[in-house]
Design brief:
two-stranded antiparallel sheet; single chain
Length: about 250
């Protein structure tokens, strides 16, 4: 993991690791705003993670944040945040370092596409410094009702299911199996637009998802397990991200 506080600075934004209670309070506030949980969003995994803050340089406003948890190999994955909701026993045999990315939040008042782009550049630096070979986490859909996400789930089932050797199994008591949903009529290049932007960016780099979604009413979301093997990212995209990171 990178040791210095600032990860990068580009244009109107800087990206850095959280330092101290004031920074953690700021990311908790942003998470609470984005997830709409009412109570301040913090959990037992926060102390184990490094928290990444993306701030507007001139105003100092926090516009995006996420947290990363380094694992030495798949043997540690059952103890991850995602491991609470998914049976990840097939990934236990993964022998390389991994990073769980979680609580990704982008301020709803900021719509600049550079924010997501810089978050990925920062994550590229973190991955390269740690030697991680896989990213994973829970990708969220707003609201716990399945009806508004049928098209997105149909696309995930048709195109982006995890390889059988890594595929997460059911564990949570309240879940939605994609193969039991009514078939969507959504087809063609517009289909992927039904998927949230963060998850879409994982998929465009070669990522994959579980064959079911978990209903998380505490977080007011549905979420799917998401994995991305670094070696599967197209070479052109890797060169672009590393070029921006450098």
């Amino acid at each position: 993991m990178l040791q210095r506080a600032e990860i990068l600075s580009r244009g109107n934004y800087r990206v850095r690791f959280a330092e101290g209670h004031k920074d953690l309070d700021a990311t908790h506030i942003l998470r609470t705003l984005c997830f709409g949980t009412g109570q301040t969003d913090r959990d037992a995994f926060d102390p184990q993670c490094a928290h990444v803050l993306l701030e507007h340089t001139r105003s100092g406003e926090l516009v995006c944040s996420f947290r990363v948890l380094e694992l030495r190999s798949g043997e540690e994955i059952p103890n991850s945040y995602s491991g609470q909701f998914y049976d990840l026993s097939r990934l236990v045999s993964y022998s390389h370092p991994m990073i769980e990315v979680g609580r990704f939040c982008s301020h709803p008042g900021w719509s600049d596409p550079d924010i997501l782009r810089l978050a990925w550049v920062a994550l590229t630096r973190i991955v390269d410094s740690s030697g991680a070979q896989m990213l994973f986490g829970c990708s969220s859909f707003a609201g716990p009702e399945v009806k508004s996400h049928l098209d997105a789930f149909a696309v995930l089932r048709q195109r982006y299911l995890a390889p059988e050797r890594w595929r997460p199994q059911a564990k949570a008591p309240n879940l939605i199996r994609f193969d039991l949903l009514k078939r969507s009529e959504l087809v063609g290049s517009q289909a992927v637009l039904a998927v949230p932007p963060l998850l879409r960016s994982y998929l465009m780099m070669g990522g994959w998802v579980s064959d079911h979604a978990v209903v998380d009413r505490d977080m007011n979301t549905l979420h799917v397990f998401t994995g991305l093997e670094i070696g599967a990212i197209p070479e052109a995209r890797q060169r672009l991200l590393r070029g921006l990171a450098d």
